[in-house]
Every structure is written in C-alpha cells, then in structure tokens.
Amino acid sequence: MARIAYLVSSAKEIELADGGRHTTGYFAEEAVKPYERFVDAGAEVVVLTPDGEPPFADPYGLEPFFHYPEPDQDFFASVTRTFHRDPDDIRITLHQNTELGLVAARRLAERLKTRGFSPVEAHALVSKAARIAWREDRQLADVMTDDGLDGGLPAEEIRAAVAELDAASRQLAADRKAKLDAIPGFRQPASLADLSDEQLAEFDAVFAPGGHGPMVDLSDNPDVARLLKVLHDKQAPIASLCHGPALLLSAPEREDGQWLFDGYRLTCFTDEEEDQTEPGKLGLPWYVDTALKNAGAVFDDGPSAWVSHVVVDRNLITGQNPASTEATADALLKAVGQR
To answer: What is the DSSP code string of 37-103?
Structure first.
C-alpha cells in the first residue's frame, strides 16, 4: 500500500503587488477529488501542512462556477468544439466559461427535447446560440430569447435552466467543502516541520493541490526542500496541481549548482490563466509560471487555457489547472502502481 504525503498549504492570506492582503487558501475541488481517488485506490494518505495548522479553503475556490456538475461540463465541451473548425484555435476564457451562462447548454438541450427536438437538433440549436454568445460576449439566455433561437422555449424556462445550473453548482461546492471538513487530516494535519528526514523517507510519493496558498508557504520553505530532496533521491513520484507546483521552487540545488528540477518538463497554472482570476486582476507580486521558467523548468502548457493538461517527466508529475485534477491524480496512482 502506497503512503502518500498530501501536502496542503495552511496559508489564509496572500500579499498583493500593491502590498494589500487578499484571502486565499487551497482550492476545494483540487483537494477533495485526488484525496478521494487515492483513498479509494487503497493508498494511505497523510495530510500535512507546513506548520501543522489546519488548511483553509479559499472562498474564491468555492464559487459555484468552479463546481459545475460533470455532465454539464462534458456537454459544454462538446458544444465548444463546434465553435471552430480546428479545436486548437478555440479560446474559452474564465469570463466566458463562468459569466455568460454557457454551461447551462445541457439543461437547455434537455428542455428542447421535451419540445420535440431530437438530441442532434437540440445540440445544434444550443451550440449555435452559444457560439453567438461566445463571440459577442452576451448571455446565452439573451441570445436564445432575443435572436429567435429559443426553439419554442419561453424566456422564463430558459432562465430557469440557468438558475438550475447555478443552484446545482452551489450545492456541489457545499458538498465538497463538507467532505473536506469531515476528513480528520484536514482538521488536524501533521506538521511537515516536525517530521525528520527518516520519517519523510517513509512516504512513497507527495501530492500538492493548488489554490494560491502554495505561493505563500510552500514556495520558499526549507522543510518542503527536505521533503523534495528525500523523495527525489529515491526517485519517488512528486506530483502537484495548478498552483501546487510552486512547492518546486523550494527544491535545493544539485551538486552541479543547478536547481534540482533544472531541465525537467513541467506545467502549472499559466500566466494567461492567472490574469483571468480574481487575485490576478487585483495584481500578484509574482506568477508561478514565470518563476518556474526562471528557475530552469522546460515549460509545457496545454493547447489553450483552462483545458486539462498533465506533464510527466521522470518522477515529476504536474497538472496545469483545475480541469487537470483527475488526470493528475490518476497519473500519480499509475506511478505508485495503485491505479
């Protein structure tokens, strides 16, 4: 049975570029999904924070648009693939993904089918409306009602589908937070600082979820450096997600004077994605993407922002963003032989 160090930030605030403070922490989805996957696979998961303080869920990461139900996300992905002949040329921003009601497409298509539309016809109509909303920065509900693309649905029914998605997403966010609150390790984590190198060597892997918290207390931490060196020396998997790869900045130098992960291919939350987030718009003093490149990483990001992208180079596993959560967790399970 693999023993996984589940390293979570305990930070509650991050300093902005202007010297102000902003609430932060870990992202709930990125914390709960891998934890459950690892436990279900039979791994022993030991929750650690740098100082033994309980981790704090970033309120921003509990916003409903980070918790769309998977059937809605999957249907939306099938809709966005119709936006351009070449999927690699499609760019969906966080604003478009979260503020235009586009992810309600599945629920609208279901309502169209009750009006006699075939699944193909319903998909085609909502895709046409969604493409207009995407290109013109308009609400999907407004496009359907104002541009004659309602398919016979009353305006109130169209808006009810959008409201239904919002309610389902809020409930899913609350459910995930409740699951995390019920995990003993999240209530009383072990302190990384208190563990000896011999105890660290008992772990078979480390996983660090994201949220902006890792930028605060994992990126320049001597105890994180110890953990990375101990695991790297025995080529144990080192996995991190989204902002989690900030922990790699704590890694010590090799004997040749280069950063421990110099020349490794990796990914993380990109500067492009960061600029679309709430903290990014407020102004951060540094970006994880740029810092890792400057440290010596060979950066490998996905074809576009917000799509799932995982990079595995030797014992290093990194995931780009929240959409990469499951794939990053699965890559770690494969590496420790418990998938």
So the answer is: HHHHTT-EEEEEESSSPPP-B-GGGGSGGG---HHHHHHHHHHHTTSSSSGGG----HHHHHHS-GG
